[in-house]
């Protein structure tokens, strides 16, 4: 018997037209939930909902717009009678790896705006329903919440913040019989990761990491892990699971790894490359 | 002989008119550095600089305004010929101790804007000078960078983000001979702590913390001790520094202990009572 039965529940997934969000929505629908697929583009959201099935609707919504998020939740409530599970999944990455010194200021703040404040706005819009129905708020963080964010600072900063938001929320929701969970994914084969890793500089990043660390999982595996976490009301959802151990050791291992990065010749060469490169402005939206 | 000699260096301290920032600026000046005291209010910044000494000057700027921070750094360079050290100290606490659900949205976002985006703007404005001169950027972390941020979520979210920024920047600056540090404080006897814990809502914050934390974790240090910790971290180019030192061990064990502590908090009756209390008070404020 599962701690939380998804059958008959109503779920909202942001950034759900593709990638992890789509797979999460699809698999929750398979478990009997009604799902609202939210994405920037109304057409893509509706198409995704059609592919998912009869209890799915597509919604256009920009997580950087608080009123749009309130309106989206209101629409879900009108259509399905309430909202039990909200998954703040929408996220973007910077267009290419770049140092904090030479990324454009607008791009840095745009990633932060979507990845941290977008999660916050989703939380704010969904919480009244979640509390009323003893539901669940899932925030999608990343292993970048604790791995060094070198070359990827706005993403790492935002994901560290998202983790803290989820942990704090879980304690604050407990007295209401509702809960919050933090999901951490490693490398998932999404457009976000493909865009980031198929650049010239990532060749060097790949050289710096062992193969097992870079192994990508499919969005279907990521979605399955997330859905299982919801069924268990798990405080933390790691996919792949072994990141759980890296997270547990973070306080001890991070100072050592961080120091090694500072003196490692290949890391230093990579940073010099990134520092030297001029940067294209403007991130792409993605469903990662 | 310290690894990094402060004598003759130029430092910029944000939020430098009072509290930890003022003490950091004052003690840097004592070590022979020239200091720019930056604060929201230009008058207060100038007054603080006058109290510090001859090689100090005050700058009025808002850390949430990137253009203002660029102009402030330009003014420092104009005045002292360069900038070696930026201490991204400016920070605020949420005006109300309450849950993320019931905190006014503007208050939540404002804390993140000042504490996290403000630190980013400070770093961005200072980076060209700091990297050219093999200098340093200091970020002010907190025990809230890793302790559960219940009832203080925007503060904890911003401090967790600042920690990630400081760690990443340190790796990025290493090839240039420059560095970044994260200095973590527990409770410091500042206006920020006194206002949010002792004064607001009849001291509810302090009472709540007293109910859920052991006394040794609540001990407040002076602003002098906090300023000294920043100066020491700079002299040692330390990647991280903890004051009180006990937090170093809690940080090292965070990955193992946080899941256990967080779970305990989920099931704690005293915390549940406090959450109900602050949410009822928030509802009253709205009504």
Model description:
The complex is a heterodimer of chains A (288) and B (287). By secondary structure, chain A is an alpha/beta fold. Helix content of chain A is 53%, strand content 12%. Chain A contains twelve helices and seven strands. A seven-stranded parallel β-sheet of chain A has the order 3-2-1-4-5-6-7, with helices on both faces. In chain A, β2 (34-39), α2 and β3 form a beta-alpha-beta unit. With 287 residues, chain B is an alpha/beta fold. Helices cover 55% and strands 15% of the residues of chain B. Chain B contains eleven helices and nine strands. In chain B, the strands form two sheets. Chain B has a seven-stranded parallel β-sheet with strand order 3-2-1-4-5-6-9, sandwiched between helices. Chain B has a two-stranded parallel ribbon with strand order 7-8. The longest helix of chain B is centred in the middle third of the chain and has 28 residues, at 105-132. At the A-B interface, α4, α5, α11 and α12 of A face α4, α5, α10 and α11 of B.
Give keywords.
heterodimer; A: seven-stranded parallel sheet; 12% strand; B: 287 residues; alpha/beta; 9 strands
* Number of discrete helical segments of chain B: 11
Structural class of the secondary elements of chain B? alpha/beta
Strand content of chain A: 5-15%
Q: What are the secondary-structure elements of chain A, in order, as H or E?
A: EHEHEHEHEHEHHHHEHHH
Q: What is the CA-CA span between the terminal residues of chain A? A: 31 Å
Number of strands of chain A: 7
Specify the helix fraction band of chain B.
Answer: 40-55%
Biggest interface: chains and residue counts? A-B, 65 and 62 residues
Large-scale geometry of chain A: globular
Q: Which structural class is indicated by helix and strand composition of chain A?
A: alpha/beta
| Largest sheet composition of chain A | 7 strands, parallel
Overall pLDDT of chain A:
91
Can you count the beta strands of chain B?
9
Low-pLDDT residue spans of chain B: none
Strand content of chain B: 5-15%
- Uncertain regions spanning at least 5 consecutive residues of chain A: 279-288
What is the H-and-E element order of chain B? EHEHEHEHEHEEHHEHEHHH
Gap from first CA to last CA of chain B: 61 Å
Mean pLDDT figure of chain B = 94
Biggest sheet, spatial arrangement of strands of chain B:
3-2-1-4-5-6-9
């Amino acid at each position: 018997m599962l701690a939380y039965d998804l059958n008959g529940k109503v779920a909202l997934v942001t950034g759900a037209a593709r990638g992890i969000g789509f797979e999460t929505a699809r698999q929750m629908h398979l478990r009997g939930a009604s799902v609202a697929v939210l994405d920037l583009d109304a057409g893509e959201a509706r198409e995704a909902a059609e592919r998912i099935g009869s209890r799915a609707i597509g919604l256009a919504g920009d997580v950087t717009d608080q009123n749009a998020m309130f309106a989206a939740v209101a629409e879900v409530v009108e259509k399905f009678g309430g909202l039990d599970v909200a998954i703040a999944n929408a996220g973007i990455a910077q267009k290419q790896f770049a140092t904090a010194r030479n990324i454009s200021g607008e791009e840095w703040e745009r990633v932060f705006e979507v990845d941290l404040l977008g999660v916050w706005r989703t939380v704010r819009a969904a919480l009244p329903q979640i509390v009323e129905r003893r539901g669940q708020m899932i925030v999608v963080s990343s292993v970048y919440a604790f791995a060094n964010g070198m070359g990827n600072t706005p993403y790492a900063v935002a994901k560290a913040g998202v983790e803290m938001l989820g942990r704090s929320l879980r304690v604050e929701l407990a007295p209401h019989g509702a809960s919050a969970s933090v999901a951490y994914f490693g490398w998932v084969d999404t457009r976000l990761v493909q865009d980031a890793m198929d650049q010239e500089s990532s060749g060097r990043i790949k050289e710096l990491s062992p193969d097992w660390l870079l192994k990508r999982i499919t969005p279907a595996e990521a979605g399955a892990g997330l859905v299982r976490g919801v069924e268990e009301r798990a405080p933390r959802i790691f996919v792949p699971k072994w990141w759980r151990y890296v997270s547990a050791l973070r306080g001890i291992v991070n100072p050592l790894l961080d120091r090694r990065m500072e003196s490692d010749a290949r890391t230093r060469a990579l940073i010099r490359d990134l520092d030297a490169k001029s940067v294209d402005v403007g991130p792409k939206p993605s469903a990662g | 002989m310290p690894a990094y000699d402060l004598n003759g260096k130029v430092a910029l301290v944000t939020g430098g008119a009072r509290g930890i920032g003022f003490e950091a600026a004052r003690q840097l000046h004592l070590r022979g550095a020239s200091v720019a005291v930056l604060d929201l209010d230009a008058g207060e910044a100038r007054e603080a600089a006058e109290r510090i000494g001859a090689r100090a000057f005050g700058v009025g700027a808002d850390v949430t305004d990137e253009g203002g921070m660029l102009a402030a750094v330009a003014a420092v360079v104009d005045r002292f010929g360069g900038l070696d050290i930026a201490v991204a100290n400016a920070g605020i606490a949420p005006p109300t101790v309450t849950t993320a659900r019931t905190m006014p949205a503007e208050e939540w976002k404002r804390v993140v804007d000042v504490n996290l985006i403000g630190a980013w703007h400070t770093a961005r404005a200072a980076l060209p000078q700091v990297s050219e001169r093999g200098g340093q950027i200091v970020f002010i972390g907190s025990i809230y960078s890793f302790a559960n941020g219940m009832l203080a979520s925007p503060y904890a979210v911003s401090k967790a983000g600042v920690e990630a920024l400081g760690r990443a920047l340190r790796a990025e600056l290493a090839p240039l001979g420059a560095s970044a540090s994260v200095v973590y404080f527990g409770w410091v006897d500042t206006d920020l702590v006194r206002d949010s814990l002792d004064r607001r809502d009849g001291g509810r914050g302090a009472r709540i913390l007293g109910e859920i934390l052991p006394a040794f974790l609540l001990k407040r240090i002076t602003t002098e001790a906090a300023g000294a910790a920043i100066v020491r971290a700079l002299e040692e180019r330390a990647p991280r520094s903890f004051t009180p030192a006990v937090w170093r061990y809690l940080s090292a064990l965070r990955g193992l202990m946080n899941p256990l502590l967080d779970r305990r908090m989920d099931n704690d009756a005293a915390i549940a009572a406090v959450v109900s209390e602050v949410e009822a008070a928030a509802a009253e404020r709205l009504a």
